[in-house]
Amino acid sequence: MTQHLLSIVLFLPLVGLIPLLLIPSDQKRTLKLCANGVMLAGFLLSLPLALQFDADAAGYQFTENAAWIPSIGASFNIGIDGISLLLVMLTTLIGFLATLASWSAVEDRLKEYYALFLILQAGMLGVFVSLDLFLFYVFWEVVLIPMYFIIGIWGGQRRLYAAIKFFIYTLAGSVLMLLGILTLYFQHAKEYNVYTFDLARLLNTHMAMGTEQFVFWTLFLGFAIKVPMFPFHTWLPDAHVEAPTAGSVVLASVMLKMGAYGFVRFSLPLAPHVSSEPWVVATIAALSIIAILYGALVCLMQKDWKRLVAYSSVSHMGFVTLGIFALNYNGIAGGVIQSINHGISTGMLFLIVGVVYERRHSREISAYGGLAHVMPNFAVVFAIAMWSSAGLPLLNGFIGEFTILAGAFAVSKLWAVLASLGVILAAAYLLWLYQRTMLGEVTHEINRKLRDLNAREWAIFLPLIAWAIWIGVYPKPHFDVLEKPVQAIVERVAGGAR
Amino acid sequence: MSQFYTAADNLALKPALALASFGCVILLLEFMLGRARAAAARQWILGLSLTGLAVTAWTLWEQQQALDGRRLTAFSGAISVDGFALFFNWIFLAASLVTILISYRYLEIEGEEQAEYYGLILLAQCGMYFLATGTDLITIFVGLELMSLSFYILVGFLRGERRSNEAALKYFLLGVFSSALMAYGFSLLFGVAGSTRLKDIATAIQSRDLHDPILLVGLAVTAVALLFKISAVPFHMWAPDAYEGAPTPVTAFLSVGSKAASFALLLRFFLEPLGALRDAWQPLLVAVAVLSMTAGNLAAITQTNLKRLIAYSSISHAGYILLGLVAGNETGLQGVAVYVLVYTFTNLGALLVVAALRSKVTGRGIEEDLNDISGLAQRNPTYAALMVVFLLSLAGLPPTAGFLGKYYIFLSLIQTGHTVLAVVATLYVAVALYYYFGIVKMMYMGQAAERASLISSSVGMRVALGITAAATVVIGLYPEPFLRFAEISLLR
Amino acid sequence: MLDAAFFYAFALLAVTGAVLTVTRRNAVHSAIWLIVSLLGVAGLFLLAQAEFLFAVQIVLYVGGIMVLFLFVIMLVNLDRAMKESQFSKQWPVALAVAALAGFGLTAVFRKAGAVLPPMASPAEQGNTQWLAQVLFRQYLLPFELASVVLLVAMVGAVLMARKKEGARS
Amino acid sequence: MITSTHYLVLGAILALIGTVGVLTRRNVVVILMSIELILNAANLNLVAFARELNQIQGQVFAVFIIAIAVAEASVGLGILIALFRNKETVDAGEIDLLKW
């Protein structure tokens, strides 16, 4: 059981697909129960991963390795280290909560909807646990397809445009990434005469600078579009705004992390020389800072609640990439922690938009106002989410941003200063949003009749709030699991910089 | 030449003999039985043609066992059966099988239930056999004509439909023109070598001055004719018309069977006799491949007819396959083989769904318009879902089979240092995805039109759908045995 | 010398016929000029000691195909076809192709040609017998295959040309 | 003296005329005739090479080409008649349901 635990967690959603497809489409309740049951089981099964994880052990745990396509050297090779562990836990939790959040929000074509979510879940988990680049690439692409449908079928007004834009953008990035992977694979074969996609072995590849540049930049495009970094971010607002709530939550909380994870897991270790070249670092840091400030400034101008949250993602993910490319322990660990934080807090923010949208069917900020009087519980939850996102001490966002800023400060004071501007702006737009929607008098009569959170909604928010406070108050366990893998990456990059 | 008909000849000929005899019998059945009785025996004719394929499969299997990777040359060098030929012949067999399975119902709807149809399919496959095995100019030429003539008639098989007539005529005129060019090129090659055997031509080319004008003209004209047959740009103009006007099962057969056979011939030609001239033709092939991908993909974006869209996309696929030949290393050739294999099943599957759209309820007129597939997901979720799988595979996304074809092509380009080509080729994947997902958009997010989207399914259809979908998914998820097969076939 | 005279005469016939075939407005005239051209080629076959081909050319082409052509031209609407414009707008393409082919032509020119020796069959037999020997031994397979091709053509032509009876409205 | 080059040049001229005919004429029957010219050019080459090399194979090839030409012509004319039944034209340019 334990030696296959990771595969079980990985494939459970796909197994759950079978009963789901057998249930007749008109039995909506059974369908919902089935999907939620599978997702909950997935989360519960992933808990032993966290409990049994040994933070002191170096290398990967829960590893499994099986031959898959020997003739090209691809294998089913999975395992997790601390970085993956956090992201896997985030994925199983968010996957379950997003499904739960769809209970009353989606009533149309349920079977397809939940089936796509299950496929999406398996794909995302696969990305985080793959230790074979071929396997990784397959999962990476698998993720795109269900998300296209989720946005395209259950999305808002401009869903078709948003769906195809998301798909084409991210696909273009990922096929170029494939070229990088293939180049690396070929270089390794040239050096060792063995064709393999095994990450551990590919790490031994020595490349000429030009080749490494190619590998780095193709991977960079794939990951940067996913994150998304500044000039590649244009798909994100459309996709986020048009996607149904659960889609936005998964997209923001988990899928964006795939890009950050890619940088940490693949870009830095596989191309350490290029990643530590000063001009590369400067370029990426500049793009990250632009993303932080630009995202925040755009947020200040938004009239659309969901769009605002979407742009705040651009800003927050800028912190993540800035931290990663600070290339020191604080930066990278902070980047990973901030990825989790962003997953928690932005997930909550999208869920919050979802709650009011489900009741009022409007995303206009001006359509609300004074909701705190009508929905007091909701106001509390929103406040926590907002503080968490804005980086208030004792909540998760503070820990992540502080660590990143510390990492960035060690490299360049200017970076740290500019990035802290982003923190201030974040507080500004979030508080202003809160003020416009929650505080003051109730501006629209229709809003007086809005229901407050129900039990199911509480159930969705509580775990997230708990996790946010846990990280904010006692982040040590999280940093503990990150210590070994991040240290290894830092050393590797520093070694490459020589 | 001591013996007239040796045991080797017999073994090498068996599949062709099976195809030709079943084909001819079925072709003449209506003359022998009379129209009324032939019409009454429709199901028996279908059974007979499937039996023919079964016998062919058995003979191919026999060859495979007997050869065990060796090369068998028969008829004093006219044909040779090797792993390469067998590989392609299995593909032809799969293509005919699926075509026949989806044709029965289609012909019923069109009111063209004639025995000749099945006979022509078997005979076309017989022609393909000689394209894959032929190592002699005359045999290749006659085999090519057997295939092409059968196809001209099949494309025009809906005699009552003007579009079918016109498609047949256009395909015929350009096909015959390219055949004539090929004959002209062959005549010059014969002059250079003094023999019609490819082997002798290869020797002659190696020993001759490369600037021998006769040789150059001969090669150029032959190459143009070959590019015509695989519908590579700028010799592609027949494909969209022929694909659109032909009965859809014939479109399917044409787009995979004829294409695979033409590629088999092209590969044999470029690798064996022309192998020595690699430096000369490689840049030209690069140009043709890039042009094909560009023109095919860009033209496909604007299409509103499903079959035309698939036709243009198949032009771009020809470009991808040519890239494998451009790379020309082991990976590249294996890529060509894998690509042709997965493309066969995938394209058959996609056109199968298009063929299934045609129903009696729809009434007259072949539209196959994008609108016709609108809302398919609501009414026929299985067909729609499998169509998505086929389209993903055509675009080349994992975990479908199509990804593997692209994988090998990209890898071979990287191995041989064609990085820029690789980047161009990968970016066209995104372009292709755009128009393939235009179809998906219609199926899943379009409103179901009044007259459209009722699948006329039949047992044969479902079996064919099962075969193509299973192949697309299984090759995608567990390709090992297929890759081994392709590898063994090519590395003789 | 006589050989050369005959060659040029037949060549002139073939080329003139060909030019007029593709330029005549009336398809019947084209067909007749094609016959002239084919006869010229037939004469050249004779000159090059291909007696059998000479016979085949006369019987099959001139006798068979041309009758078929003429038959079809008569069947389809001749008067109307006459009035329609005869040339497409693809002149530039044609010109390019012609230039390209002309280049090939000059290339072929440059090669010093070998004086044609009389053909000598191995067993002191006539060329036709020799041809038959090779055809039925070395090329038995394509020969049989060609018979299948002809069968397909025959059935196909009948199938295409006959009326679709019982056509449902 | 007449050399194989003479035949080749003549063949090339015929092929050229045929190609121009195919590309410029609009009458389907005439296009078909032009194609016959190309085939005849091939045959001339083959016959000349057969004599130059004393290889009867060239003539055998020519026999095959003629047989194929017959088959092509009959199928083509069959298709033409089928089209003519539905639409009274032999003008390739007027075949316009599908874009040329």
Number of domains of chain D: 1
| Count of helix runs of chain A | 20
**What level of helicity do the residues of chain A show?**
over 70%
Beta-strand content estimate of chain D: under 5%
Question: What name is given to the CATH topology of chain D?
Answer: Helix Hairpins
Biggest sheet features of chain D? none
- Helix/strand order of chain A: HHEEHHHHHHHHHHHHHHHHHH
What sequence of helices (H) and strands (E) makes up the elements of chain D? HHH
Number of separate domains of chain A: 2
* Largest sheet: spatial strand order of chain A: 1-2
State the helix count of chain D.
Answer: 3
Question: Which CATH architecture of chain D is right?
Answer: Orthogonal Bundle
Largest sheet of chain A: 2 strands, antiparallel
Structural class of the secondary elements of chain A?
Answer: mainly alpha
Q: Ranges of chain D with pLDDT <50 over ≥5 residues?
A: 96-100
Alpha-carbon distance between the two ends of chain A:
45 Å
Give structural notes.
The complex is a heterotetramer of chains A (498), B (492), C (169) and D (100). With 498 residues, chain A is mostly helical. Chain A has 2 domains: 275 residues, no CATH class; 222 residues, no CATH class. Chain A has 20 helices and 2 strands. Chain A has a two-stranded antiparallel ribbon with strand order 1-2. In chain A, a hairpin with a 4-residue loop joins strand 1 and strand 2. Chain A is globular. Chain B has one domain. Helix content of chain B is 77%, strand content 1%. Chain B has a two-stranded antiparallel ribbon with strand order 1-2. In chain B, a hairpin with a 4-residue loop joins strand 1 and strand 2. In chain B, helix 13 runs parallel beside helix 17. In chain C, 75% of the residues lie in helices and 0% in strands. Chain C is mainly α. The longest helix of chain C has 25 residues. In chain C, 36% of the residues are buried. Chain C is globular. Chain C has 2 domains: 83 residues, NADH-ubiquinone/plastoquinone oxidoreductase chain 6, subunit NuoJ (Four Helix Bundle (Hemerythrin (Met), subunit A), Up-down Bundle); 40 residues. Chain D has 100 residues and is mostly helical. Helices cover 77% and strands 0% of the residues of chain D. The radius of gyration of chain D is 17 Å and the shape is elongated. Chain D starts with a helix and ends in a 14-residue tail after the last helix. In chain D, 80% of the residues are buried. The C terminus of chain D is likely disordered. The chains are: A mainly alpha (498), B mainly alpha (492), C mainly alpha (169), D mainly alpha (100). At the B-D interface, helix 6, helix 7 and helix 10 of B face helix 1, helix 2 and helix 3 of D.
